[in-house]
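**Sequence with structure:**
===
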Amino acid sequence: MADEIHETRDPDGTTHTTTVIDREPRRGGGFGMGLIFLVAILVAAFFAFQFLANDKAQSGAVSDAAQKVGDAAENVGDAAQKAVE
């Protein structure tokens, strides 16, 4: 960090002093970037859970349909068995 002081004199004798203060650039973007990253993770998690819930409901519907087909096949088998008797 370097400070500079410049003095200038006018022809009438007045003096003007200018001070230049050199500071490190601020790096306050970390908090903002962290917040954006957190929001992005929450949005991704929301959509992932929505997809998983939809997939689970779809799997349940397929399982129910398979169970109904199995029950119908059992009924057909029972009817065929009775027809043979």
